[in-house]
Amino acid sequence: MSESLFLNIESHTQFIVISDIHLKDPQDKLTELFIETINSLKEPQPIYLIGDIFEFISFKHKYFIKLWSNVFDLFESKIKEGFSIYFIEGNHDYNTLKKTSYFTWAGKENRIVTHPLLGVIQLSHGDTIIRSTSYALLRMILKSKILGFISLFFPGILLSEICKRFAQRSRRHEKPINTNFVTENLHKRWPKGINTLIIGHIHMYFHALDTQKRSFFVSPSWQEAPSFLQITEKNAQRVFLNQSSEPIHVDEFL
User: Fold this and answer.
1) Are 122 and 196 a contacting pair, CB within 8 Å?
2) How far is C-alpha 246 from the geometric centre of its chain's CA atoms?
3) Eight-class DSSP state of 23
4) What is the CATH number of the domain that holds 61?
5) How many structural domains does the chain have?
6) Whose CA is closest to 185, among 202, 169, 171?
7) For residue 230, what are the β-bridge partners?
8) The pTM is what?
């Protein structure tokens, strides 16, 4: 892909990436940790939320906006401080608002930015890249406009309970993902013209640099290891957090 196609793409020297928190309860410890983590960020910069921040959410239901008002109020507060918050849909996110004061909608599947060290970067939840054939069909059905429209007629609290139970059942039956499966999918579906790919979805802590010098970063689930990816002008860091949102370990790449 010609570099000229990326001339109008936003460029960043630093930004933060967070994914797969799977918030379930606005008042539980995980939500408190997420809020404290965002509040602890002092230097204004872009924050990319690349899917499954919530265990389930349908943004066009007022029920969910009210339920998660503490999180959305936080987003608005950080934006006023000079941060930019971008939201990319995950497989647990539905009917995302394209115009809202809570964040900038960054696409149903991916966002492309450029960086002086990492080149052309694609930020994606990853479920269209690392996936089986059967999952691709299921995703197409669940993300269809028809199903999205029908869901608007369900009470929010009922829709939430149905989808949470479906997610729990799905996890019980899913097969563990190994590095060979990830590598095979990357070989098949690495986006053309992209130097660096940053995803979540598979709940696996993984970083790789291939023979073509392309970088690949995967975020672990916050259920297993709360963390965020900090991209700076000179390097990339995976910052792991304790229950007080304080860094307890940093892995540095590049």
Assistant:
1) yes
2) 21
3) B
4) 3.60.21.10
5) 1
6) 202
7) 16, 237
8) 0.93
